[in-house]
Every structure is written in C-alpha cells, then in structure tokens.
Write a structure and sequence with these properties.
It contains 5 helices and 4 strands. By secondary structure, the protein is mainly alpha-helical. The protein has 2 domains: 152 residues, Orthogonal Bundle (Helix Hairpins), CATH 1.10.287.1490; 68 residues, no CATH class. 10% of the residues are buried. The mean pLDDT is 93. Pfam families: CT398_CC (PF24481), Zn_ribbon_9 (PF02591).
Amino acid sequence: MKEDIQQLINLQEIDLELETIRRERDQIPTKIASLNRELQDLETELASEKERLDEDEKEKKLKETELRDEEEKLKKSRDKLNAVKTNKEYKAVLKEVEDHNKQNSLLEERILVLMDQLDSLRNTVNGLESRLVERRAEIGTEVEGLTKKTEEIDKSIESKQDEREKLLAKIDPKYSENYNRLSKRLGGTVVVGVSRGICTGCYMNLPPQFFNEMLRDLDIKVCPNCSRLIFLKEDEAVKKA
C-alpha cells in the first residue's frame, strides 16, 4: 500500500511538471506573435511617415512652381506700370502688383512651413528606419531563441511522458484508472494526504466513521467532500499503529 501511494504521488508530480511545461510552451506562440506585431507596427508607422514625407515634398514642389509663376506675373505687372497712360489703368495694374505680392507672401510662408515639416519628417523617418533595423535584428534573435526553447520543451515533454508511462505500468490499475479519471476532471493535485482527520486537498473534516475506516484499512480512499484520492499521512498511520 505504501508503495502504491508513493507511486501515485510520483505520478502526480510528473503530471504537475508536464502541466507547467506545457503551459510554458503554450505561451511561446503568443510571445512570437507579439514580437511580429511589434515589427508590423513599426513597418506601418514607417510607411505612414514616408507617405506624409512624400506628400509634403510634392506640395513643396507645387508651391515652388506656383511661386515662380506668381513672380513672373509680378514682373509683368510691374513692367506694365511703366506703359500705362491713364490713372485708371495705373490703379488697376497697381492692384495686380499688390495681389501678386500678397499671393507670393502666402506661398513663401507655406513653403517655409513645409520645409520645417520636411526636416522633422526626415528625422522621424531616419529614426524609425534605424529603430526598425535594430528591432528586426533583436526580434530575429528572440524568435530564434523561442523556437529553440520550443524544441527543448518538446523533448522534455516526450521524456516526461515516457517516464509517466513506465511509472503507470507499475501502479495497480484500480488506482491508476481512478487517478487518471480524477486528474482529467479536477486537474492539479488529486492525490493528497489526510492529517488529523482533515483532507489536505479541500481542508474539510472527514466524517468520523469514514476516517475510522481509513485508520482500520490503511487504504487509499476517495474524499467524500472533494473526490480527491486520499491517504493517511505517516503521523496518522503511526498513531494508528
């Protein structure tokens, strides 16, 4: 009986280790996906900033072309001032000159704003490109490490499963079958000791008659409260003896 109890405890330890190992393995794809999302976010941000840079460069070229056209119109209007013959014509041409000057000022102001924006965007793009190169290398190393870790965990799981099968073959089927059934239903710890008439799985008192039967039979029982497999701890067995 003592050997059966110890083997069940050993089996449970293996299962708990397997549960921990599998949980760790299950987290790896999530970690890899998170790293890949980080790269995708950086790439998306870089593409967006490059698009803004391209749009501002196009607008700057357009405004510079418009400015050249306005300057040409301004020159022609000034030349016309020397050729006008009436006061009315003079006022009309003077209005053209003023309008062209005003438009030129607006265009020059917009071009200066765009130049500042372009400087800022170029710095942002350069920073993102450097960051992307750096993180791509780092994440590549991290993913490689996680992939290797997955392979190591798979080997560990295989080894533990082999160990479990060998141990399972040594346990009385009436105990192992009950253990497997409870393990699937309850999960976690299903083999626990009894101390001072209390199940250490649910920490509830066992019925007196039930506990007396345990003291008499020294057998593995099922806790009437939580359904775990229970056994007398050595201190209880010694008291009984």
